[in-house]
Specification:
The complex is a heterodimer. By secondary structure, chain A is mainly beta. Chain A contains three helices and 19 strands. Helix content of chain B is 11%, strand content 41%. In chain B, a hairpin with a 6-residue loop joins β18 and β19. Classes of the chains: A mainly beta, B mainly beta. Chains A and B meet through β4 and β5 of A and β1, α2, α6 and β47 of B.
């Protein structure tokens, strides 16, 4: 688990049994016939609860500094679970889900939606997908904070060709490297995968839709994983590297001697965007 | 109908007063409410009359900092909403709709450090001083609403093009914005499917040619010259005579003066629509309008242009545009019309009862977009159903107050809709508007709370109106002023006298001395003069000694000018002004229904004022009021409904309440008007509540239909019918 500002993601120790609680606003009521009407917000935000037992204050000094604002934000949370499943935000990994696309058109609006066949659990599933502007590439997404290293980026499409454009950027937002992912026939649909490397001054990754003359071509099912090992073909939902707020740590002093302090700490990290 | 699981979303744009204008902000919550109220009428009546000023609130996140100075009240706020963004882009039935176009009224914060501001919202109603002058032309009371709206910058028709020499909106009146006013007699006004009043049933084949009163000439080019081109723009709608019946014939015609060229819109029995140009001396040429203009469909904005191809003869190319798009190929023709004739105006304006005309403009620009498109109206002022013989008394005041007054008197309703437009609908439009949605109550409503109260019942209803008393005489013998005073007019001097009249008048007669002219002295304007003051010896001056003339400054104010052309002082003893046409406010007339005044325990009295002048209109209002208040009717309020942002205030819906017991006889179908809408949004929750007013067609008229009759009568009349058949009859009004 890495936590910190853009370009400053730092490994923090976490122990097993980290509850991750989603929070999606919703409402429910029933009609006269008993039909249930449920409304949901487009996005869910999560909270991570971390527990530390009998550790010295030095071990949680970084967290304390983040919580107190000594290390200014915005802060991002990079989890190992996301690194292995999908580092892309949910609305970028499957753009158009809940009507929201993290991959916008050039003017910032949401692109037309449709379906794209992706492999999930070994079987093809009809995932929500979007089409790009026929003549213009989309707008770049916000920078996804990543540690330096190699990553694998993949995506699905309803036909062969380029499915997504990417670029790495430095802390000022300037481009460091760029590339595309191109799909070819795969498992009854069309899939492409490429290596993305963050090196030098690169601190984040941006994606955008690419122009395609066919307005009915759909792309979706994007996935970003850490490491240079090729992904399995299965698509997994995006978990993202979300912007978070670190709550103040709760502390229970267990031992205080002249040479040693040991305490139990608990902290909640809440996704804000 | 929305899905059982949906994802509501909204867009809030707000002016934070930082100079950035309207910016989109992520807001945590907002609420907008509208309901028809006012008029001092019982709930079951006022819900289909009165007025509404919507209000609301929105919580806006702001950047850290002190709240003062900050968001400034008075700025615009726009909220768009969809009840299911998840299906939006797939082209389903759900789309973004306007929730409000309001202004911030106040801004508050719970804490100095609060990161949000609570902003209260309010509809921006038309404000500002309005003067509605006396007008002796026939009109519909809705024209007063339109004039008040115009004063606040709102309008139901496209604004005049810069090049327009003639612009007549025809929203309830023949007032001209450019060029002289017109006389459209007879004629009436009817709302099109957009809810805007148009001229219809006007069979005046020859309306007076507009003539500039100053120069005596009116046209698009100076005398002796032809314009390089001109355009005739108008909005047209076609109506079927009976609901669901094919039109027999529909026609709207505009004739150009002094040519015999005409532009005509027609529909045949098969429903095909055409625009035909009848060029002078040439066979007509047709431009098909089918697909662009349908009977009982949306009106069309038509622009017909003519571009000269020769500077000597009346030859050129005709082009037709519908809603800004060209139709057909340009049509050229040539005639030998002398350029001296030119184009001076419009000689004919005809709209049968199957058609409506509005927004007429004639100008020299050949760009059809200069004459405006439909769908950009800032007001939708419909016909009131209250014809006015004349506007008898000048009316002035605040625009919104005048609009409310007309709405109250005509039992119509006025409000600001979700798009920020002023809407006025007459009582018939409210009561008989098309059903926009069918609501399955069990499937879509949480419950139907309601109340029935004796407070809503009136045992006697009175309405008072003021008819206009008109007089017309070809003999010019209607006396409007009689001055029996002595005026001394010095040699060579001119004396002017200005007097207010007790009556509104038009078309003054010429001035004569009493014994001149072969007509009796009771005709024409007369003056009596003498060469000596009272009590002294003198004689009548020569006929050309005094030059007397008069002018109506307004219909109720006259200025008489007397010029002494002699070298001696003269005395005028009497001045009598007479006119062809007069209008005066008649005595108030009160109509009543129900028990006698002495027996009445809960009477309802309504003063309709001068906005209702017709006894027929007053009787219709009385009958409706009496029907609505003869027995208690349910008022259904705050009904939570599965959100459907297409439902708007003033819409008519059918509410089908299937039997909860399984007995079809328990099923009920109500035709109801949405008299209140409350919409609120928090993340993951879009809540919509409506208030419904059961329209009299299903309750009041039903009661009246079967009052005093027995079950046996009922059974005999509807023998063989199923409950379903009966239910359908109720639904479609077949019982009434």
């Amino acid at each position: 688990m890495r936590l910190g500002p853009l370009g400053g993601l730092r490994e923090i120790v976490s122990f097993p049994e980290v509850p991750v609680a989603p929070d999606r606003p919703s409402s429910e009521w029933r009609t006269m016939s008993g039909r249930r009407i449920v409304q949901r917000a487009p996005r869910a935000l999560r909270s991570w609860s971390l527990e530390f037992e009998r550790v010295p204050p030095a071990d949680v000094a970084y967290l304390t500094a983040l919580a107190s604002g000594a290390l200014p934000g915005p802060l991002y949370l990079y989890t190992d679970a996301a690194a292995q499943t999908n580092l892309l935000p949910a609305d970028v990994a499957s753009p158009g889900q809940m009507g929201v696309s993290g991959l916008p058109l050039p003017d910032g609006s949401h692109p037309p939606r449709g379906r794209v066949q992706v492999l999930m659990g070994g079987a093809l599933a009809s995932l929500v997908g979007v089409s790009s502007d026929p003549s213009l590439p989309g707008a770049w997404t916000a920078a996804l904070p990543l540690p330096l290293g190699s990553y694998r980026l993949s995506g699905w499409a309803s036909s062969s060709g380029t499915v997504i454009g990417w670029r790495t950027v430095d802390a000022s937002g300037s481009q460091v490297a760029t590339g595309t992912v191109t799909a070819s026939s795969s498992s009854g649909s069309f899939r492409g995968e490429s290596t993305v490397t963050l090196s030098g001054a690169a601190v984040g990754l941006q994606l955008r839709l690419v122009a395609n003359a066919d307005p009915f071509r759909r792309v979706g099912g994007f996935r970003l994983t850490a490491g240079s090992t090729a992904q399995s073909l299965d698509w997994l939902p995006g978990q993202g590297v979300p912007e978070v707020v670190v709550d103040d740590l709760s502390e229970t002093l267990q031992l205080v001697t002249a040479g040693r302090i040991a305490a139990d700490y608990s902290v909640t990290i809440r996704e804000v965007r | 109908m929305s899905r059982a699981v949906s994802v509501p979303a909204s867009k809030v744009r707000v002016d934070l007063g930082d100079g950035a204008g309207l910016v989109e902000r992520e807001c945590s919550s907002w609420r907008v409410s509208r309901s028809l109220s006012g008029g001092g009428l019982p709930g079951q009546v006022r819900a289909v009359s009165g007025s509404s000023v919507g209000s609301g609130s929105v919580t806006i996140p702001v950047d850290p900092g002190s709240p003062w100075p900050g968001v400034t009240p008075g700025g615009p706020v726009e909220i768009d909403v969809t009840h299911d963004v998840e299906t939006l882009v797939d082209g389903g039935m759900v789309g973004w709709r306007e929730a409000c176009r309001m202004r911030t009224r106040s801004v508050s914060w719970d804490s100095w450090l609060s990161p949000v501001r609570s902003v209260s919202l309010e509809d921006e109603v038309p404000r500002g001083p309005v003067v509605v002058p006396i007008d002796l032309e026939r009109s519909d009371a809705c024209c007063v609403v339109e004039r008040a709206a115009n004063a606040a910058g709102l309008r139901s028709t496209p604004p005049p093009a810069a090049s327009a020499a003639i612009a007549v909106p025809m929203v309830g009146a023949s007032w001209a914005e450019r060029g002289p006013d017109w006389v459209l007699t007879p004629g009436r006004f009817r709302s099109n499917s957009m809810g805007v009043a148009m001229l219809t049933d006007s069979n005046a084949n020859h309306t007076p040619l507009p003539v500039d009163p100053e120069s005596g000439v009116f046209g698009l080019a100076p005398a002796g010259q032809l314009p390089a081109g001109f355009a005739v723009a108008f909005t047209v709608a076609l109506f079927s005579y009976e609901p669901d019946a094919p039109p027999l014939f529909a026609l709207a015609r505009i004739g150009l003066s002094p040519t015999s060229t005409a532009i005509e819109v027609s529909a045949d029995g098969s429903g095909d629509t055409w625009l035909k140009i009848y060029p002078q001396g040439q066979p007509p040429v047709s431009f098909p309008l089918s697909g662009r203009l349908a009977v009982d469909g949306w009106p069309a904005r038509i622009v017909v242009t003519w571009e000269a191809s020769s500077s000597n003869t009346w030859s050129g190319d005709w082009r037709v545009y519908v809603n800004g798009e060209p139709v057909g190929s340009p049509y050229s023709y040539s005639t030998t019309l002398e350029r001296g004739s030119g184009l001076r105006g419009v000689s004919q304006l005809r709209a049968t009862e199957h058609s409506g005309l509005g927004g007429l403009q004639i100008g020299t620009s050949l760009d059809p977009l200069d004459y405006g498109l439909l769908g950009r109206e800032t007001a939708l002022v419909g016909a009131s159903g209250s014809p006015l013989e004349a506007i008898i008394e000048p009316t002035s005041g605040d625009a919104w107050a005048i609009i409310q007054d007309v709405a109250r008197a005509t039992l119509g309703a006025a409000w600001i809709d979700e798009r920020g437009r002023l809407v006025y609908r007459g009582r018939e439009a409210l009561r008989t508007g098309p059903v926009v949605a069918e609501v399955d109550a069990l499937d879509r409503l949480e419950d139907i709370p309601g109340a029935v109260s004796l407070d809503e019942v009136a045992d006697r209803v009175e309405v008072t109106y003021r008819p206009a008393v008109t007089a017309f005489s070809l003999l010019t013998d209607l006396t409007i002023l009689d001055i029996d005073e002595v005026l001394a007019v010095n040699a060579g001097a001119t004396v002017s006298i200005t007097r207010d009249l007790d009556v509104a008048a038009a078309r003054l007669g010429r001035w004569w001395r009493p014994w001149e002219d072969t007509s009796p002295p009771e005709r024409w304007c007369r003056y009596a003069a003498w060469t000596a003051p009272p009590g002294e010896s003198g004689s009548a001056p020569p006929s050309d000694a005094l030059d007397v003339s008069a002018r109506l400054i307004t219909p109720t104010r006259i200025r008489i000018t007397i010029r002494n052309t002699t070298s001696a002082r003269l005395w005028v003893y009497r001045l009598v002004a007479r006119a062809d046409f007069t209008v005066r406010a008649g005595a108030a007339v009160t109509l009543a229904a129900g028990v006698s005044e002495r027996e009445a325990r809960n009477p309802l009295s309504l003063d309709l004022g001068a906005w209702v002048q017709s006894g027929e209109t007053a009787r219709a209002i009385l009958a409706w009021l009496a029907g609505e208040t003869s027995s208690p009717q349910p008022v259904l309020s705050d009904i939570r409904i599965d959100p459907d942002t297409d439902l708007m205030l003033g819409d008519t819906v059918l509410v089908r309440i299937d039997s909860m017991s399984g007995d079809p006889a328990d099923a009920v179908t109500l035709k109801a008007l949405i008299s209140g809408v409350d919409l609120s949004h928090t993340p993951g929750d879009l809540s919509q509540s409506v208030s419904l007013t059961v329209l009299a067609m299903n309750v009041g008229d039903f009661n009246e239909r079967f009052s005093g009759r027995t079950v046996a009568d009922f059974n005999a009349e509807f023998a063989g019918m199923t409950v379903g058949d009966l239910n359908r009859l109720i639904t479609i009004g077949g019982l009434l």
